[in-house]
């Protein structure tokens, strides 16, 4: 009981602290992204849309919106161009087919934001026989991360487009402070699993030289309209 209260208190402290008092950190957020390539999954709406719009303002060479609904992806693309004046290559691609294509057609990948996720209160199973949230939030996230590692790794050996602003390729997984509530609901468990997933990926030899990160945003909404 006391342990449960402690867990809820840790979550509340973290959540309210981050939600109302945290300020964005990290000078490299504003690095020159010229010549670099980024991708964000689940970027047609929500946090993913915001995660794609921010780098668009910094004018990388290529930005890929990996989405499951191409129509929504195209709408997000138009909105990003209108908001940011992005002039590079901007593509909406089907997330399922993306990983195979990425490793054969992209020359470099400087940042992969694996963000797509789902939060429901009802139980549903996928055609593959997994709980839907577990498959979308954790298994697919891990699979895509592993499939993209070779390209991210290959990018570590390429010259930086800006030698004075060298930066390792980033692999970022969208988590949640809700992981502190693990065992209080399936969604929270999937986000704790993503924390472990991120740690395991960090320790892989193939992740050497790649900045692997678990991020959480606090509670937020955003949309292309
Ligand atoms: N919003 C928050 O306050 C908050 C807080 C903490 C963590 N997060 C995390 O942030 C991430 C984004 O959440 P959000 O709030 O921005 O949610 P959202 O607005 O519902 O967006 C979720 C995105 O994931 C995509 N997606 C869902 N199921 C998918 C599937 N089976 N295959 C491929 N793509 C799928 C959605 O595509 P469709 O549009 O086609 O459905 C959409 O692009 C999630 O990982 C979530 O756990 C959010």
From TrEMBL:
Keywords: Oxidoreductase. InterPro entries: NAD(P)-bd_dom_sf (IPR036291), SDR_fam (IPR002347). GO terms for molecular function: oxidoreductase activity. The keyword Repeat does not apply. This is Uncharacterized protein. The lineage of its organism: Eukaryota, Fungi, Dikarya, Basidiomycota, Agaricomycotina.
């Amino acid at each position: 009981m006391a342990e449960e209260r402690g867990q809820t208190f840790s979550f509340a402290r973290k959540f309210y602290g981050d939600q109302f008092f945290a300020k964005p950190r990290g000078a490299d957020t504003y690095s020159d992204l010229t010549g670099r390539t980024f991708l964000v999954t689940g970027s047609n709406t929500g946090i993913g849309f915001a995660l794609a719009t921010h780098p668009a303002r910094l004018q990388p060479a290529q930005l890929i919106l990996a989405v499951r609904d191409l129509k929504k992806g195209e709408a997000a693309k138009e909105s990003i161009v209108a908001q940011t004046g992005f002039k590079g290559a901007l593509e909406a691609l089907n997330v399922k087919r993306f990983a195979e294509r990425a490793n054969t057609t992209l020359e470099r990948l400087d940042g992969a934001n694996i963000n797509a996720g789902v939060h429901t209160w009802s139980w549903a199973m996928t055609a593959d026989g997994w709980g839907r949230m577990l498959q979308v939030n954790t298994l697919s996230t891990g699979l895509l991360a592993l499939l993209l590692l070779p390209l991210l790794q290959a990018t570590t050996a390429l010259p930086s487009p800006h030698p004075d602003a060298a930066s390792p390729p980033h692999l970022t997984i969208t988590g949640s402070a809700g992981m502190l509530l693990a065992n209080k609901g399936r969604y929270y468990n999937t986000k704790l699993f993503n924390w472990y997933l991120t740690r395991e990926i960090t320790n892989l030899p193939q992740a050497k030289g790649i900045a692997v990160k678990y991020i959480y945003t606090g509670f937020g909404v955003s949309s292309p309209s």
